[in-house]
Amino acid sequence: MHVRDPSVMHKYAKHQKTKCNLWARMWSSSSLLAEILIADGVREHLSDVSAIEIGAGMAVCALTAAVRGGAKIMVTDSSDHALDLVKGSARLNGVADSLSCSRMDWHSSSSVSGVAVQGGPYEFVIGSDVLFASMNVQPIVKAIIELLAPGGLAVVIDPGRLSGEGFDEAAREAGLEAEVYEASDVAMSDGSVMRKGVLFLLTSSSDKDTERTAALKRGLVGTWGWVAENRAGAEAAAEGEGGFGYAYTHEWAAKTAGGRDPDIPPRAVR
């Protein structure tokens, strides 16, 4: 992205009259999801996918999906300042034609409906660290249902916040299928450690998965399995170009090609 020093964004946000400046920070969940999206088994299924990132902030995940995966993606956030930054990043990364932005507040049904009508429904919905407040759980479930295309896939990653507990139950009660995978002490490519990571995969319980959704789920589960089982060596593996994605290729591609590997069970499925 085109902001070399994240502290600059905090200084910028400090002088803006916004409700929240959480968008001005790069969160570990976003970094992890971005690395997962470039994994072999995931990246190749993003080409021309109709996607949307909710609560995107700096939109590192959306930009990664567009730049490395060729996704056509809508970026949403409640902050106009965040979206201005994303538009600049898209131009500098050469994906302004495949990435669009729209203000969306998931607490407003009319705001969500407006985005759904504008470019939806979407085959692929992504969100990272959006469950930072318990009051977000129900609105995000409702937003996913409205934004998600029949047979599509929603992916939400969270650092194990207490506020996110019950998200999968809420999704199931609303008519979604929910798979939950957990990992602990995940080494990030920048050398930091994410103490806990929770991956939610959501699909409609009334619609059959599309071929793309089935392939993405296999790739995401396989990559997450690599992250969970090899977290101690993840930092070293990430020294080469591509981070988790390229390390995953050698370890897990063959094992996940035909579906979820029986040796990689869901982490603490609720």
Short structural description:
The protein has helices at 6-14, 28-37, 60-69, 80-92, 109-119, 137-147, 167-173, 211-229, 231-237, 244-256, and strands at residues 50-53, 72-77, 99-103, 122-128, 148-158, 176-187, 193-204. With 270 residues, it is of the alpha/beta class.
Which descriptors apply to this entry?
alpha/beta; single chain; disordered N terminus; 270 residues
Can you describe what's shown?
The structure is a single chain. The protein is α/β, with parallel strands linked by helices. Helix content is 41%, strand content 21%. It has a seven-stranded mixed β-sheet, with helices on both faces. α5 runs parallel beside α6 and α8 packs across α10. It is globular and about 40 Å long.
